[in-house]
Amino acid sequence: MPSELGVREGEARVTFTPSEVTADHARSSAALIESAARRAGSGGAAVLGCGDCTELAVEDLAASFERLDLVDVNDAALGVVSDRIEADDVLRRVVRIHHADLTGLVARLAPAVRSIIANARDPLACLEDLGTLLTATAPSFWTPPEPGRYTLVVCAGVLTQLQATARQVVEAMYVGAFPEFAFALTTHQAWRRSAWRFARTLEAQFIEYLDTLGRPGTIVYLADTVHACWLVECGPETFRTEGAWVATQSARLRDYLPPWHEVLVEDAWPWIVRRRQGQYWGRLYGQQALIYRVGSPA
User: Fold this and answer.
1) Residue 149 belongs to a domain with what CATH number?
2) Mean pLDDT of 99-122
3) What one-character-per-residue DSSP string does 94-156 give?
4) How would DSSP label each residue in 247-261?
């Protein structure tokens, strides 16, 4: 079974119609973002990890806010968004696209990883050194054009991907140098501990970073995968899981927030990704979402 960071919870047999679950995911996400936008009112808005905006009502957000910043690292996705903006006068006036790695970690890690690998003599010792590097490298988060000015920040599916993006770069370079030791990425405990610490630390730093994008009173929509499990098809619309992984620091997304933030809405729903890998039909994700108001420490 593909390895995951996190804790596995019990096995289950589930029955569902994949197309309906996917549609429910899109509707739930869109409705909550719309609710967050209404609460924010007007001013500036930012969508972090916007992708190609296929599930985002960009036109509605542009009509409600004076400025809308869309941020992503994927060139192809931003190209799709750019074409959409160019075809609309309102979007051209309000929307700004920013190509950026939110953490800045890929650019910082890559040269150091190359140096460690070039000087390595023992593959497992090298992997331990890479784990040390991973936990010691601080992020350099994207700086918006006008820091602290957003009244709405939308961040969906980003939190758990921050560490994955950086970690996968390190792992790919390691496997490229030591292909016969690829197994160590899932079995070497020192590397696994480093990767886990890196993920949890980066996630906490990112939540603190979100606070800097606005001021007390800013509305944040935060959504992500809390549970994930691989699916084995065992009948028409019937699937077996070998357990769900808790992909975040705990089974509740709100545990990331400090006590001075006010949670306004909390919701959860399933989401399906059909992507066959070996015996697995795809993945079932347990999504959670929060709308919260940024507060300030007493």
Assistant:
1) 3.40.50.150
2) 96
3) HEEEEE--SS-HHHHHHHHHHHHHHT-SSHHHHHHHHHHHHHHPPP-PPPPSSTT-EEEEEEE
4) -SSSS-GGGGS-TTS
Provide the sign of the torsion angle of the four alpha carbons 179, 185, 191, 194, taken in this order.
positive
Rounded to the nearest 10 degrees, the angle between the axes of helix 159-177 and helix 189-212 is: 140
The verdict on residue 158 lying in a domain is yes
| Rounded (5°) CA angle 36-41-47 | 50
Structure confidence by residue, pLDDT tens digits, 183-231: 999 999 999 999 999 999 999 999 999 999 999 999 999 999 999 988 8
Please give the C-alpha separations between residue 287 and each of 25, 132, 151, in angstroms, as whole numbers: 8, 31, 24
Our count of domains for the chain comes to 1
Within-domain flag for 1: no
Residue 146 within a domain: yes
- For residue 230, the enclosing domain spans 7-293
CA distance 180 to 168: 17
CA 215 – CA 20 distance, rounded (Å): 38
The pTM of the full predicted model, rounded to 2 decimals, is 0.90
